[in-house]
Amino acid sequence: MITLVKAEFLRITRSMRWVAAIAVMACALWAVLQVVLFIKPETVDERAVESAYSMAQQGYMFVMILGILLVTSEYRHRTITWAFLVTPRRGRVITAKLVASSAIGLAVGLLAALVTGPLVAILLSAYDYPVWTPDIPAVLLGSVLSTGLWCLFGAGAGALIRNMVAAITVAFVWVFYAEWALVMLVPAVGRWTPTGVGKAASGWNRDALGAFAPAGDLLPVWAGALLMIGYAVAAAVAARLITVRRDVT
């Protein structure tokens, strides 16, 4: 298994470095844009400052697409066939891909936090806002964890759908249309959706920044993190079980 995971890391670092770099920059730029658009003088307090630092997680869509690409690119270019021929136990191959994807997601989240943190601090100081609270390290850690789980979630979705365009389309439709429509119809569901759970895990506060978000209070940070892990693991387990039972083509 360790050899398979190393092989996945080698494949990703050699062939998909540009995708990971784009994901990092997209997360950072999106975070800064969110802070510029939504932070308001009348709402600035400790919660607002902490939520500003959690904005790196708001680029979760880019990270989920990264996870999808890490898996579906192998089906698109048919290299998955050779992987299964070399290692006939498909479950081990898929597990290695999921482990590598989650690690790459954590690395992207860490880099995004390192890029976003100083930028957010500069923006806050330019507005004469406080730039630090005791809970900010926990917020940054939650953002990194949430980003890694979104990448794992995307990899699981990619293994389930396999077609690159279809998988990305489904992800977009769910995040930007289906999930929001569901939350508008049943506001209480917002705290349990993957997006709401991811925001909760990163310590994001919708009221602090006055941003548009799923209605209703979010879960506590620890509950959001546990449920996000549950969603990601469920997607990974489903991907492993289904991949073992169907044709590659």
Automatic annotation (TrEMBL):
<protein>
    <recommendedName>
        <fullName>ABC transporter permease</fullName>
    </recommendedName>
</protein>
<feature type="transmembrane region" description="Helical">
    <location>
        <begin position="98"/>
        <end position="124"/>
    </location>
</feature>
<feature type="transmembrane region" description="Helical">
    <location>
        <begin position="136"/>
        <end position="153"/>
    </location>
</feature>
<feature type="transmembrane region" description="Helical">
    <location>
        <begin position="221"/>
        <end position="242"/>
    </location>
</feature>
<feature type="transmembrane region" description="Helical">
    <location>
        <begin position="59"/>
        <end position="77"/>
    </location>
</feature>
<keyword id="KW-0472">Membrane</keyword>
<feature type="transmembrane region" description="Helical">
    <location>
        <begin position="18"/>
        <end position="39"/>
    </location>
</feature>
<keyword id="KW-0812">Transmembrane</keyword>
<feature type="transmembrane region" description="Helical">
    <location>
        <begin position="165"/>
        <end position="189"/>
    </location>
</feature>
<keyword id="KW-1133">Transmembrane helix</keyword>
